[in-house]
Amino acid sequence: MGIIEAILLTVITAATPLVLASLGELVSERAGVLNLGVEGMMVMGAVLAFAVTQATGSPYIGVLAGIACGALFSLLFGFLTLTLVANQVATGLALTILGLGISGQIGEPYVGMSGIKLQPIAIPLLSDIPFFGPLFFKQDIIFYLSIALVFGVNWFLFRSRAGLKVRAIGDSHASAHALGIHVIRTRYLAVMFGGACAGLAGAQLSLVYTPQWVENMSAGRGWIALALVVFASWRPWRLLAGGYLFGAVSISQLHAQALGIGIPSQFLSALPYIATVVVLILISHNRRMTLINTPASLGKPFVPDR
Amino acid sequence: MSAVGASGGSPLLAVRSLTKLFGSFAACNAIDLDIQPGEIHALLGENGAGKSTLVKMLFGVLAPTSGQILWKGEPVRIPSPGAARRLGIGMVFQHFSLFEALTVAENIALSLSPGISLSKVAEEASRLSHLYGLPLDPKAHVADLSVGERQRIEIVRALLQNPELIILDEPTSVLTPQEADRLFETLAKLKAEGRSVLYISHRLEEVQRICDRATVLRHGKVTGACDPRQETPASLARMMVGSDVASVTAAGTNTKGDVLLEARHLGVPARTPFAVALKNVCLKVRGGEVLAIAGVAGNGQGELFDALSGEYPVPEAAAVSIRGKAAGNLGITARRLMGAGFVPEERHGHAAVPALPLSDNLVLARNQSDRKTFLAGGVLGVIRHAVVRIASKRISETMDVRKSGENPAAGSLSGGNLQKYIVGRELDRQPAVLIVNQPTWGVDAGAASRIRQALVDLAKAGSAVLVISQDLDEIFEVATEIAVISEGRLSDAYPAHELTREKIGLLMGGMYGKTEGEVAHAH
């Protein structure tokens, strides 16, 4: 395996959780719900995936546990913001703090324990292609899922009737309600999809990235995922590209250190945010495209007048 | 235009003592209404009379507190808009329920059964839109369309479901007279097909022109059911308002003073993709004049107001002058200090902060222009609440603002009352120049006539008044001079008595260069 191949492999591993978590948030935000609790849902998914894998010995059951945990945790957010109409920003922040706290508690016995790694699945024939084979076709199930989900979400949002409803709700929930679309129900589903994706991203951290449990192991990736959604202007394809860009940047600090390049690591970890700011400035020049893609009802609570 | 269903027969839709309570307040109180097949039925009433509430109940948006809705003689419950559509009721809303970020076809698809593919929706939509004379491009984004085009989407959307009853909420308030004529042709076509139309309006002449029957609401109750063609506008207005609406005495014979407001070759590039660029706008308003600027929504009215008020100053100081002094590059406060007053279009969130009480809203607007009166303590700027309250009370009394309590939150007032307050807030200063955008938009007839009279009186007292409006009735009531804005260009101003609706309509419809010459030539 050449050095470039090895570096690219680490980029893929670093990018996958970003792609997954931000893809879930993208769907949630397309429905008009701003869930700042990505970090919390992610870390909850990570700890539950790890614990269940330890208990059952099967990382696949662990992955399922991570997904379920993220979805359930987001349900709490949904109940507070959609049913009780609490402020989405405050609730999302609380969810992150809560998730970091609870995961630390649950994960305490697992600290320092060696984990079980989710093994790659080689796809016959395709994995034999030189260079690309090992990179893209000899990966774990979560990587395959992340790519499939980007395809799936893009198709869902822009080709399916249900996705059209999600976008409509994100644009104007009052109009959507007037058309008889179930705003709250759809938002619950979107929020839970976001939670499930964040949970899956967390499972990737504790079962693939570094197969062990470390407190706060999401390490700010939830925030990068949030920035990534805006960076991608709520478009799945741009999100995939952005995810890999941010993944490359975040992994580059390690490679830079290994190669003895003297870039301060703080600068490199700030790069995704700087990149987001730069992209925001660039795309805000094209106001029309921004307005057409930005969910206009993002973060606004909806109360049907009945 | 024979009134097929006007006499007898079993009604398509009947409403029996329908009531909707909000708390203890009856928005609709024991309403009875019959709509016959194939008739255009008008629902008349002031704002707050309960028209919207009634219609929302018919369309399943609100649940009635008590009473019955009968569809073809059968009692029905309409729990949701979807249920209403399944019955065969379609609705075109006043404030369009369109999604700006989506395309025309996507907007239409949302209200159809999910089985139909998007391409089929687009096909069917363009077929229907041409059939009824409402051309539409299915692939266009709604954000890029004019208000008239948006309304067409709503109508086509309703028609695609093949409804037997179509409800139209104030459909012509945003259209040019020509566009409105085209809409009336569409309605006639629908009627000829045996469909019924429930037509909500407070434009009496329209109702008299196209409607077979009318039901009049006031304070949530039915105050009359009649054949509008047998009534006079005055008798219909009496049913709506309960008393005769004071007619506005126009400023007609005012003595003209100096030029107090002037724009010279004012050009402003479009700020957003949806904005209109102003091109070489020239206007002059003398003391004693009311210059009304007519035009269809979205032709640069907002941009013109922004530039004249200083909300968005322009680089060339000389482009706008107030009382003879260059003010183009000055902000709104500086222009207020020069003796100008401004009333923007949006009541909530622009002219007033809905959550704050009236007195705070007064201070927010006038804390600089009336600094000495309202603020104490020099640089500290401590608000003199007692003084502000007295001023607020004076404004409310002068403008007859009806409100709950002494100093309620601005948002709790009805649209008409808040608008009276906002206009009164400026008039209270007796500004030398007053610029108002859409002064009576969505305001009931009583409040509208009060506001218009106040504008006319201000001009009589020697001030220059500029009114930007889409309401031609209003323009003819208040204006001494009329200009028309179209695609960011302003026509010359003509004395109001020299213009007719038709000529204004031509100027509005973008036939700028030609008609300007024609109209000028004609006089």
Query: What is the C-alpha radius of gyration of chain B, as a whole number of Å?
Result: 24 Å
CATH superfamily of the largest domain in chain B: P-loop containing nucleotide triphosphate hydrolases
Dominant shape of chain B: globular
Measured as a percent range, the helix fraction of chain A is: over 70%
Number of strands of chain A: 2
Instruction: State the CATH class of the largest domain in chain B.
Output: Alpha Beta
> What's the shape of chain A?
globular
Structural class of chain A: mainly alpha
Give the helix tally of chain A: 13
Largest interface by Cβ-Cβ < 8 Å: A-B, 26 and 28 residues
**Low-pLDDT regions of chain B:** 1-7, 512-523
* Tally of individual helices of chain B: 18
Intertermini distance of chain A: 64 Å
Query: What does the oligomeric state look like here?
Result: heterodimer
CATH architecture label name of chain A = Orthogonal Bundle
Mean pLDDT of chain A: 91
CATH architecture of the largest domain in chain B: 3-Layer(aba) Sandwich
Largest sheet of chain A: 2 strands, antiparallel
What's the number of extended β-strand segments of chain B? Answer: 23
Strand content of chain B: 15-25%
* Low-confidence parts of chain A: none
Features:
heterodimer; A: 306 residues; mainly alpha; ABC transporter involved in vitamin B12 uptake, BtuC; two-stranded antiparallel sheet; globular; B: 523 residues; alpha/beta; Rossmann fold; 2 domains; seven-stranded mixed β-sheet; six-stranded mixed β-sheet; 18 helices; 34% helix; 23% strand; disordered N terminus; disordered C terminus
